[in-house]
Amino acid sequence: TVRYFPLDAGAGGTNGETTESLAWEIAPTPGNWRNLRIRLKVAPGAGTTRTFKVRKNGVDTGVAVNIVHPATYGEDLVNDFDVVAGDRLDMYLGFAGGAPVFSHIAWGLDWTPAIPGEYIHMGTSTGALDT
Fold first, then answer.
1. Residue 12 pLDDT more than 70?
2. Residues with Cβ within 8 Å of residue 59, at least 6 apart in sequence
3. Rounded distance between C-alpha atoms, residue 83 and residue 37, angstroms
């Protein structure tokens, strides 16, 4: 099973999407993303691994975390990626191994603007994507 989430859904109550384009958020300004940290409320399930990947324009960025049962926390403090305004961003979640156990998920990323003084506030909508 694969799910896609908007980047701002890390603390939300969504089940994710099976179609990636429904989870896209648009980067409003250029910058650099890094330091992905993920916490599960419940471990993935016996023999199960949860794989999280940040994606840009439908392609893996290299920022990724695997959480293997019985762990509930993982981080990628090594990889990063740059964005420009208009890039489409989302989080991929895949499962491998045993039957996954439902869990609330919280995640966060650090962001540094390419333009000094810029900041971002990302959000999602179930409406049509318009760039």
1. no
2. none
3. 19
Domains of the chain (ranges; CATH) run 2-112 (2.60.120)
Q: How crowded is residue 85: how many other Cβ atoms within 10 Å of its Cβ?
A: 14
Residue with tokens 């799910």, as numbered in its chain: 3
pLDDT band at 99 (very low <50, low <70, confident <90, very high): confident
Q: What is the pLDDT of residues 16-44, one digit of tens each?
A: 889 999 889 999 999 999 999 999 999 99
Q: Hey, what long-range contacts does 55-63 have (CB within 8 A, 24 or more apart)?
A: 55/4, 55/20, 55/89, 55/90, 55/91, 55/92, 56/81, 56/83, 56/87, 56/88, 56/89, 57/87, 57/88, 58/20, 58/88, 60/92, 61/33, 63/33, 63/34, 63/36, 63/109
